Amino acid sequence: MEKQFTKYLNGTASPVEFAQVIKSICSDDNRDNVSTEILKLWEKTLSAAIENKENSQLLDKIHHRIALEESKSIARRFTLYRNLLKVAAILIVGLITTTAIFYYKPEKQLYTGIIETVTTPYGARTSFKLPDGSEVWLNSGSTISFPRQYAAIRNVELTGQAYFKVLKDGKPFIVKTRLGAIEVMGTSFDVKAYADETFETTLVEGSVKVSNNTNQLETLKPGQQSAITPANEISLKEVNTELSTSWREGKLLFVNEPFQNVAKALERWYNVKIELQGDRLKKLGYTGTIEMETFGEVLELINTTTSINYKFNKNTRILKISGR
Fold this sequence. Notes:
33% of the residues lie in helices and 34% in strands. By secondary structure, the protein is an alpha+beta fold. The relative contact order is 0.08.
């Protein structure tokens, strides 16, 4: 187990090793053993860091990940130990639990292939490569499933939001969502397909074909965005693609966005529940950029640029917002 944790902290763990770490941490019966293993790793790193620069860099990486996680205000549950080393060990357990992001379920069968599932909880994001080498960035509160080995078609299923950089291949690449599908050969695009929202596809490079559940088809050019509603209505428009893709760089950009949409994005980004009081507030247009701020800083930013009052309960993580 120590080897897997070391690889995780170095960013060299394979998907299978990620899965082993997450399953160990998510098991209540195994939590004490996991804490002990991480404590050993921490002590070993502290001791060796004095003599070895590489281990010092590893320790810095641990501190950086903890600090980064605190800046995102992601909730953690852990037991405080009496000495500093044990506290540090538990912090790492909480960090891996909330941000590592990989939770694999390799048991499902699709034809003759094994299906992998990657899930990001609220407050976390990740990136990884698919079996064909295509890159995926997965936003908060999202789930993607794909075969461990592709056959004639490279297919994935998505709930939530993801950005794809697809390698060119003779095999079609298809993204399936509950409201439709996207077919590409090699391109870069963003897909937003949360269960309670319109299905949006934003094309950055290349060309894609988007279809709804009634097989109505639209072909997108770079800089265009398609939208499919639950009623299977499909539309196409020109957009600033940065508004849909900036989340990959740790930024949320809004231009006259209805506040109810802003609230949904913040819920996923900071792992909170937001209650908006009044229809006028829900429709209020908001323009602004949120970039790596803590949740408290975000509230102050919104408060100074809009006419709102808010009350945040830290215990329940419920934010109530009303208009002034």
